[in-house]
Amino acid sequence: MTLLERIKRERIFFDGGTGTCLQARGLQPGEKPETWNLTHPEEIVALHKAYLEAGCHIIKTNTFGVNKDRFTNARELIEAALRNAREACKDYPGTYVAFDMGPTGRMLAPYGDLDFEDCVALYADNVKALTACGGADCILIETMNDALETKAAVLAAKEHCDLPIFVTNAYDESGHLMTGADPLAMIAMLEGLRVDAIGMNCSFGPDQMLTLLPHFTAHASTPIIVNPNAGLPKSQDGKTYYDLSPEDFAGKMVALATQGATILGGCCGTTPEYLRLAIEKTKDLPYALPTSKDETVVSSYSHGVLIGGAPVLIGERINPTGKPKLKEALRQHDLNYLLNEGIRQTEAGVQILDVNVGLPEIDEPAMMEDTVKALQAVTDLPLQIDSSSPEALERAMRIYAGKPMINSVNGKMSSMESVLPLVAKYGGVLVALTLDESGIPDTVEGRVAIAEKILEKAKEYGIQAKDIVVDPLTLTVSSDTNSGNVTLGAVQALTKLGIHTVLGVSNISFGLPRRDLVNPVFFAQALQAGLSAAIMNPFLQGMMDVYYGHNALHGFDNACSAYIDYALRLDEVTVQSKTTDDGTLKEAIVRGLTDLAETRAREALKDQAPLSMIETQIIPALNEIGAGFEAKTVFLPQLLQTAEAAAKAFDVAKEKMTTGDNSQGTVILATVKGDIHDIGKNIVRVLLESYGFQVIDLGRDVAPETIVRGALENGCKIVGLSALMTTTVPAMEETIALLHKTDPSIRIMVGGAVLTPEYATQIGADFYGQDAMEAVHIVQTFYGGK
Amino acid sequence: MIAISAGSFQIDQIELNVKEAALRLGVPGEQASQWIAEYAPLVEKEIQPKYCFTKTLVRILPTGKIDLGYTRLESKDLYKNLSGCIQVYTLAVTLGLQIDRTIARLAVSSPGKAFAVDALASAYAESAADALSKIFREELSDDATLCPRFSPGYGDVPLTIQTTVLEALEATKHTGITLGTNLLMTPRKSITAFQGVRKL
Questions:
Q1: Are the C-beta atoms of residues A390 and A422 closer than 8 Å to each other?
Q2: Alpha carbon distance B95, B128 (integer Å)
Q3: CB contact under 8 A, A173 and B100
């Protein structure tokens, strides 16, 4: 019987701890357990046999920490580990070998420095070695404490072998992975990736797993694994011990088995004796696999969002259609602008962010990947990857730290054949548009028929109906006054069939004036018809009114508390804007009050030209605080608050200015290759922006070629480079040389903790800025004191 | 084998070091309280301090090398720091990844806030290490005293020792601290250190 058949028939047991047992057998402090595969194979075989003798069914190879970065002989260690495991199993029929893969010990970018594909490659090396050495019965990816790293390991396994994949994560006492994911998020992502069993290991012992297990039984459809530690680690007389005895541990395992875990075992601190007792005590308990769940879930690195209960809001603002500023940001690769749109929508209360970066003149797949990487670093919301390019979809789906929403597939054979395989591989909730080769049907029945066709085709790829949300398409009433009726009718019909729906609601008013009047009405009616999710603009108050009102009226808002919070917040805003009549724009900026500065700037522009406002109010305020900073009567935090308020006022002024006179000049900023410290660079950016300069911020750890390309593409002749570490100054020198070589007219200013004026000259910089104010003076001088 | 203790701090177990906070914010001491009042709540909401440590015997070998029980190294500065010590704590403490995320988000939406939160978080990390030292102090016998903390990368102790320290402490498992190829830790607000126990 294969392992996969076995886990669907009966309760089976993994072995227990390795490190603890090997220490008892003589492993020294600082010695790595994996080296014993080669140096003490007889001990490894003996330990495996002890577990098999105790009644365990699956033994884990002694390969937890093996990868080629940590061990130069990784391949040999893997081969030996497999040999030892097979040797042990050969006298125990009906037992299995799990190839063990643990975390790399490194953090993925952007927080750490491990690139996603490098991480996949590290695991892929192990899987290739496994395959070359004859394989195993399954791969166990365990003790993972990051969602994205877990995904990298799963993809490596899927791409290089056909073995069953089991995954267990380490949850901390708050019920999350160390990097934030809760069980629902992990279940959604891993079932999307179609792993064969999921669960928990290590962590805080069986008691904590008992509290988390209900999340698994409530949401998981795959068999559930629990491999806890023998309680909590304690130390006494210089020795570590775990606080559960074998009897106590076995008692907890009975509870875990009773509550739905079907694959059990041990982790740190457990020994063959722990497992022997646990197996004995659980052998007569009834066995039941998790039921198949019909939940539609998308997830981020931290949490899952359910579609099909309370309506879900999907923010539509990261989409260049009809948004000149966003188009400009995309052309300039200005991720900050996109990220801000994401953060603002998150704060406005949406649950998912749509991400569409399609513009004919840019490299959409690359931009999509960059945007998704950057967005998931600053928002915890799940993303809806929105593109008509299968390549853009795939690049984003691959590096996405969860189960994304995918927008979209349609009823055309070509669309289904290119998009469905991606969802089958990476997982996701797919938006299905009701159009096909013959266009968009103008009847409810026609649209439902296409939805059914897509659902049927998806089945061929193993994609379940629960992972498809149908968009019956919103067409504007300005060209066909019946189109609203057809869309609403389709939502109703699909809802009756148990199919979830989504609409881009704003389209309904395309071509009409005051679209903010019509959209909320249509939104309310669509929700009434059963709409599950809406792609919408959360900055329109009318839309949010409808959302909170609908939830309160239809039992989706316990005690109306969300509605009450919303209403009170609205009141607060109104009161604030009425009572803040103290002081001028200049005073607001000096005091660093960003919101007030914005209000004052709008008022000032009623009877003042933008340029005059800048000259008489914004610049004097900045100069006052800047002079204070230089005289050491004002300090950095205050300077930054003022700069932010000034930048806001500047933005308001720019809205009123005609193109051409709206910028004091452009500056490119970057932290050089190898350096991830960007606080200093960010401070300079804020100050420059507050003085009205347009800053193209290329970010941190930027390669010399990228900086040169940025300067050339934007025709920008002044570049600011920052470095904090002595080790990255050579990268700065290299960047300067390349810039000067490419275009001798480019001027470079440098700054950062390790630099001095002499050092700056030595590496070829044109200017040295001691602090952010000096950087402003340099740029002002460069642009002729504007 | 070495014994590792691990745990986490509740926020009320950490007492913010105001002097450190002022230093990081770049404001005079008497102005610190105003900035702390404004930003500390934001920081406190986003940190989950975790720690692990081990206490080992420390010996000076005839070669001059320092034997920490799990590794040996050569360092005049650490030698000075540990002189007269028979035991040493090796510790790792982190505020967790969430505060890194918060700072990254603020760097986009409000760089001024990002600066202040970043500065205060650094002060909190020091304060979390102080809270851990307090635990050590409570364990001490009457005839012993605790030396100042000494972190890898200071003096002549190379940053490369981080790999050994974090592996010995199983710090990734216990605290989530990871090391990059540049030998910097993620989460960013993390500290590792040696702290000797000196017999009086």
A1: yes
A2: 8
A3: no
Residues 82-121 of B with CB under 8 A from A: 96-98, 100-101, 104-105, 107-112, 114-116, 118-119
Does B198 contact A at CB distance below 8 Å? no
Query: CA of B54: which chain A residue's CA is closest?
Result: A238
Residue of A689, A330, A710, A377 whose CA lies nearest to A721: A710
Interface of B with A in 33-62 (CB under 8 A): 35, 48, 50, 55-56
- Could B168 and A29 be called an inter-chain contact, meaning their C-beta atoms sit closer than 8 Å? yes
A356 close to A387: Cβ distance less than 8 angstroms: yes
Across the interface, whether the CB atoms of B104 and A378 are under 8 A apart is answered yes
Q: Above 60 in pLDDT, residue A576?
A: no
Neighbours of A632 (CB within 10 A): 8
A3-282: what fold? TIM Barrel (3.20.20)
Alpha carbon A715 to chain centroid, angstroms: 34
Q: Which two tokens mark A147?
A: 């969602």
Nearest Cα of chain B lies from the Cα of A278 at a distance, in angstroms, of 25
SS (H, E, C) A602-616: HHHCCCCCHHHHHHH
Write down the domain spans for chain B: 4-199
CA end-to-end span of chain B:
28
Dihedral sign computed on CA atoms, order A331, A332, A333, A334: negative
CATH code reported for the domain at B4-199: 3.40.109.40
Q: Which CATH class is domain A585-782?
A: alpha beta
| Residue A786 pLDDT grade (very low, low, confident, very high; cuts 50, 70, 90) | very low
pLDDT of A575 over the 70 cut: no
DSSP at A753: T
A128-163 burial, b if ≥16 CB within 10 A, otherwise e? bbbeebebbbbbbbbbbbbbbbbbbbbbbbbebbeb
Q: Torsion over CA of A524, A528, A533 and A537, rounded to 10 degrees?
A: 0
Contacts of A333 (CB under 8 A, 6+ apart): A367, A370, A710
Categorize the per-residue pLDDT at A661 as very low, low, confident or very high, splitting at 50, 70 and 90: low
| Shortest CA gap B70–chain A (Å) | 5
- Distances from the Cα of A238 to the Cαs of A229, A391, B2, B89, in angstroms? 20, 56, 7, 12
Residue A786 has which token pair? 């504007």
- Domain positions in chain A are 3-282, 309-575, 585-782
pLDDT tens profile A593-607: 888 899 999 999 998
Q: In this structure, what DSSP letter does residue B63 have?
A: T
A:B CB pairs within 8 Å: 140
CA–CA gap between residue A577 and residue A587 (Å, rounded):
17
User: ipTM, 2 decimals?
Assistant: 0.91
Please tell me the distance in Å from B49's CA to the nearest CA on chain A. 11
Query: Hey, are the CB atoms on A111 and B101 less than 8 Å from each other?
Result: yes
Q: Say if A309-575 and A585-782 have the same CATH topology.
A: no
Taking contacts as CB-CB distances below 8 angstroms, the residues of chain B near A686 are 111-112
Nearest Cβ partner for B4 among A110, A233, A592: A233
Which of A135, A124, A146 is CA-nearest to residue A67? A124
Spatial contact of A206 and A231, defined as CB atoms under 8 Å apart: yes
Superfamily of the domain at A309-575? Dihydropteroate synthase-like (3.20.20.20)
H or E stretch covering A263: strand A263-264
CA dihedral (B182, B188, B194, B197) in degrees, to 10, reads 180
For A346, the closest chain B residue by CA position comes to: B105
What's the whole-number mean pLDDT along residues A83-97?
97
Please tell me whether residue A535 adopts helix, strand or coil conformation.
Answer: strand
- For residue A666, list its beta bridge partners: A694
pLDDT score for A482: 95
